[in-house]
Amino acid sequence: MNLEFFVNDYLLAWYLLYSASLSKEIDKLRKSLWSKYKKEYNFCYKDKQEIIKYGKDFIPDNDVLYNEIFESDLFISLKKETTRHKMHLVKLFNNDAKVVKKCVKEVLKLNLKETYPVYVIHPRMECIEYNSTTDSLTWGSDKDKFDAITILIYTIVKGIYENYNNEHKEIVEAVLELAVLNEIGKQLTKTDTYDMGNQTLKIIKRQIYPFWLMYLGCDSKEELVNRMMQDKIAFDIDRYPIDKNMKKMSLTNFIDFCIKNQRHILKLGNVLKIEQEEDIEVI
Predict the structure, then answer these.
(1) Whole-angstrom Cα distance, residue 158 to residue 174?
(2) How many CB atoms lie within 10 A of CB 158?
């Protein structure tokens, strides 16, 4: 999996027009454009999906509004800052590309696209979106080094599974968090990331966790104990017979396994009273 970063003038202009305001200068420009181009201002709102679909080949039906934006000092300044941010992201990804690709391959076990386009907008616009039609991302967020890479991957994976088995959405989301925010995050940052994620999914993730370790390839009691100590999550190993075939599963297979066996998984996870000790969580 490769990430290819772009700055698209039209998309940056679109967010300047329609995203949450970042400054008084932007408010002033919007009011000026609205007073002169009310019809075009309303008309251009529909352009976002077309810009993402066609990228550099996008041609607006009416470019009067865009042309005035492109000539403004504010847009020129925003584009310079956005371009610097894009180069920062390119450097982050390129520096760790081999590690990222290795993590993604070993943890997700999916046939992903070779390249995912990432349209970079101004980092203060705080936009992280996945477009399932084009398998592309729009990124405008000022995350730190490994947060940015992890969240980019997480956004892609969540987008891929956006409508997967909505009847069991909590299980799907729990597994995706275990895969990206927790395991890939752990491998990228070399820190403990198993407390990251939506706190409402914490219990179900604990219940899935023993099977998750088998999915990752832990096939002995010693390996399970080592991982429990690293992640500060403990369970009664004797209640979980090791299934060495689980490491052959893809992420989709594992999600399906958790859904199919949810009653058994929940029953095992609820056998022991949940307690919290000084440096270990017990389920």
Answers:
(1) 11
(2) 16
Count CA atoms closer than 13 A to 27's CA, side-chain side.
5
Q: What is the CA radius of gyration of the chain?
A: 23
pLDDT value at residue 279: 40
pLDDT tens across 157-203, in order?
Answer: 999 999 999 999 999 999 999 999 999 999 988 889 999 999 999 99
Q: Are strands 127-131 and 136-140 parallel, antiparallel or unpaired?
A: antiparallel
Name the one residue in this structure whose structure tokens are 């990124």. Answer: 139
Percent of the residues in the chain that have a pLDDT greater than 70, as a whole number? 94
Asked if 1 and 104 count as a contact pair (C-beta separation under 8 A), the reply is: yes
Phi, psi of 131 (to 5 degrees): -105, 110
pLDDT tens digit sequence for 44-69: 999 999 999 999 999 999 899 999 99
- Residue 147 CA to residue 189 CA, distance in Å, equals 9
Q: CA 147 to CA 181: how far, in whole Å? A: 9
Report CA-CA distances (Å) from 183 to 77, 108, 157, 163, 248.
Answer: 38, 10, 14, 23, 17
pLDDT digits (tens, 9 = 90+) for 1-45: 899 999 999 999 999 999 887 789 999 999 999 999 999 999 999
Cα(217)–Cα(247) distance, rounded to whole angstroms?
Answer: 5
Instruction: Provide the edge-to-edge strand list for the sheet that holds 2-6.
Output: 2-6, 115-120, 136-140, 127-131
